[in-house]
Amino acid sequence: METELTRRLAIQYPILQAPMAGGPSTPELVAAVSNAGGLGSIGAGYLSPEQIRQTIREVKQRTDRPFGVNLFVPKQPTTSADAIARMNHYLDKYRIEAGIATNPPIPKYAESFEEQAQAVMGENVSVFSFTFGIPSQDIMEAMKLHGINVIGTATTVEEAIKLESAGVDAIVAQGSEAGGHRGSFLPSKTDALIGTMALVPQIADHVSIPIIASGGIMDGRGLVASLVLGASAVQMGTAFLASHESGAHTVYKGRILTSSEDATEVTSAYSGKAARGILTDYITDMRTYQGEIPDYPIQHAMTREIRQAASKANNPELMSLWAGQGLRLAKERGAAEIVEQTMEQARLLMRNMGRQ
Amino acid sequence: METELTRRLAIQYPILQAPMAGGPSTPELVAAVSNAGGLGSIGAGYLSPEQIRQTIREVKQRTDRPFGVNLFVPKQPTTSADAIARMNHYLDKYRIEAGIATNPPIPKYAESFEEQAQAVMGENVSVFSFTFGIPSQDIMEAMKLHGINVIGTATTVEEAIKLESAGVDAIVAQGSEAGGHRGSFLPSKTDALIGTMALVPQIADHVSIPIIASGGIMDGRGLVASLVLGASAVQMGTAFLASHESGAHTVYKGRILTSSEDATEVTSAYSGKAARGILTDYITDMRTYQGEIPDYPIQHAMTREIRQAASKANNPELMSLWAGQGLRLAKERGAAEIVEQTMEQARLLMRNMGRQ
Q1: Average pLDDT for consecutive 10-residue bins of chain B (356 residues)?
Q2: In which band, very low, low, confident or very high, does the pLDDT at A169 lie, cut at 50, 70 and 90?
Q3: Nearest CA distance, B19 vs chain A (angstrom)
Q4: B197–A260: do the CB atoms touch at under 8 Å?
Q5: Exposure on the CB side of residue A96, measured as CA atoms within 13 A
Q6: CA–CA dist B315, B309 (Å, integer)
Q7: Cα four-point dihedral sign A296, A297, A303, A309
Q8: Which InterPro entries match (chains A, B) (predicted)?
Q9: A180-181/A275-278 β-pairing
Q10: Which of A156, A257, B170, B233 is deepest in the core (most CB within 10 A)?
Q11: Which of B75, B76, B103, B101 is nearest to B87 (CA)?
Q12: Sign of CA dihedral A39, A43, A47, A48
């Protein structure tokens, strides 16, 4: 199934695996998706430059097909020291629950984006994608000089227009159904949680580069519907989360496979940035926090040890269980099977459409 | 374009006009949609039995095609007298702004659902649809004895399953993109704002009766995408709001035609029930209200005079401007044109699909 984007990225099928930072997108998953004809992607936002180089090499040992690397565009946090200290103190209740030391110093909170980007460029990958903003013109041009396809993420039409002006090759249109972090980077009067059905055609009418639909797409129905709406490909995350190759924690996979479509909500309680995940005791409890939640990446860094300890203790209620709204459609199977079954269903639907 | 639902409802095209209570769904609009081959629908939730009979007759003077009538299933409000009094007092600031008398008595707040339903049955209409719950088994059976097709509204899979068990003939799957009131009627741990792309296939996998997709559907792309996802028809509201035949206030139509996809949010500040509308000063201001917003229909009744006065004064900031997230796709045209252009685009897309 050829589209403008499959040609540009030299992939067989219009299926991109969402770059899921923090564990799920293992080299095995990325390579399996690319080997099956889609585009695998490393969620490298939290990785050091050395870890990025290492992960890329591990993927390359498993595939010679194109794949992508995703980074988070940094934004200077503006939270006051007082608000940070107050949250750090409040988090002690969860640290006690998780059995770790209370009142730790505020941790160092992010990798250098420039060094991460240099690592990506140094390893000759096919696709560089980014979220949370737009990299500097210098980085954008350097990526192009390296022959790398650049993909940005938009949650509104205005963001898509801005990304096209900045010179990206394609745009992920992230609908409100999508799991994980919201890619929003421009101010909006509302929460900018636009459903995929509404977002894709409106972006399609305002940009001329290929669009990748994301949010709630779990099978061939979602793929064909997205192409009809004006997309050239889809990005699927939740569908791959419970795959054999996914690095998601067993308890996390279990929740993905047993939760219903209304199990998620958007919260900034884990990282300081809005993200969609399965409801946990932590999210419910943090709804009533009276202070300000520190900006990303401060909150993310402050909650890291709690999440890690909860993970070791198999306690999902303190873990971040990022997931989209298509949960009832998640199945445990191999990543290649997901790509193949999605394509098979899509081909059948398209044939049937043509007959009507 | 035949589907399971067009056959059942004896309509030509799988396009239903959303029943928009409170003015937009005039007899002219309902008849124009039905005459064009879709299914027009009267939003009768706020009408008295006599007004319902009158409106149905006005539609029948304009069309002999099938059309529908929609009612709101009542639920006993549980708000305390104190909370109601506090809100009534708080609303005085808007009454002053709107130039009407302050501190009015708490108004009588709803029509009798049984009498409304009797009015519908007495007038021999083709379709009865309902929102906010499920009518009693007595009413459901009486509707069927009258040969009326019954359609319920679901925002989750669980609600859809419950509606099917109750014996409805079809289900509107209301995605989070949809404008106006949320049809949710079962408790959910979250806000149950599931995007159309995720909601439709998940409901399709759990019920065997026809599904009508709603939320963010504005043209042929949305129609075909919905059919691909498993729907037998679509329901479009925002697309018809700015039509020539719509009874929406001129100022309201103006906002529909000039707003962007991120202009709306879900609020219960107007009616006591969650509904999606274009952001106004009233919504923004009510975000900071410290008390409890009284349940529907109390809040609706208490804000009615304010909304009516704002409407007379052409002041949109105190009006309820219900709208979905497809706003950039709204155009000023006739209702028949909307049906025809949607069908034309849909046919073209389906032909192209079949060729790939």
Answers
A1: 94 98 96 98 97 98 98 95 97 97 88 95 96 97 97 98 98 98 95 97 98 98 98 98 97 98 98 98 96 96 97 98 98 98 97 80
A2: very high
A3: 20
A4: no
A5: 6
A6: 9
A7: positive
A8: Aldolase_TIM, NMO
A9: antiparallel
A10: B233
A11: B103
A12: positive
DSSP state at residue B15: E
Residue B291 CB neighbour total at 10 angstroms: 13
Asked if B201 lies within 8 A of A195 by C-beta distance, the reply is: no
For residue A157, give the H/E element and its range.
helix A157-165
Closest residue to A260, CB basis, from B157, B225, B355: B157
Distance from CA of B48 to the nearest CA of A (A): 35
Look at A221 and B202 and tell me if their CB atoms are within 8 Å.
Answer: no
ipTM: 0.97
pLDDT, tens digit, for every residue of A110-150?
Answer: 789 999 999 999 998 999 999 999 999 999 999 999 999 99
Chain B: closest CA distance from residue A143 (Å): 31
Flag whether residue B158 sits within 8 Å of chain A, measured between CB atoms. Answer: yes
Looking at the domain that runs over A4-74+110-248+330-355, which CATH code has it been given?
A: 3.20.20.70
Residue A102 token pair: 């209370």
The DSSP string of A177-226 is T--EE----S--SS-----HHHHHHHHHTT--S-EEEESS--SHHHHHHH
DSSP SS3 for B260: coil
- Option in B177, B262, B350 nearest A353 (CB): B350
Q: Could you give the 3-state DSSP secondary structure of residue B88?
A: helix
User: Cβ(B9)–Cβ(B66) under 8 Å?
Assistant: yes
Residues 6+ apart with CB under 8 A from B261: A156, A157, A194, A198, A199, A202, B325, B326, B327, B328
Give the one of B230, B262, B329 whose C-beta lies nearest to A194's C-beta: B262
The confidence score (pLDDT) of residue A207 equals: 98
Of B190, B197, B224, the CB nearest to A175: B197
By C-alpha distance, the chain B residue nearest A346 is B228
Q: Which residue of B has its CA nearest to A225?
A: B225
Closest by Cα among B243, B224, B246 to B233: B224
Split at pLDDT 50, 70, 90, the class of A287 is very high
Provide the 8-state DSSP code for B322. Answer: B
What pLDDT shows up at residue B110? 75
What are the tens digits of pLDDT across the range A221-267? Answer: 999 999 999 999 999 999 999 999 999 999 999 999 999 999 999 99
Tally the C-alpha atoms within 13 A of residue B144's C-alpha that lie toward its C-beta.
10
CA–CA separation, B90 and B79 (whole Å):
16
Amino acid sitting at position A149: N
Chain B residues whose CB is inside 8 A of the A218 CB are 198, 201
Query: Which of the four CATH numbers 3.20.20.70, 3.30.420.40, 3.40.50.300, 3.40.50.1820 does domain B4-74+110-248+329-355 have?
Result: 3.20.20.70
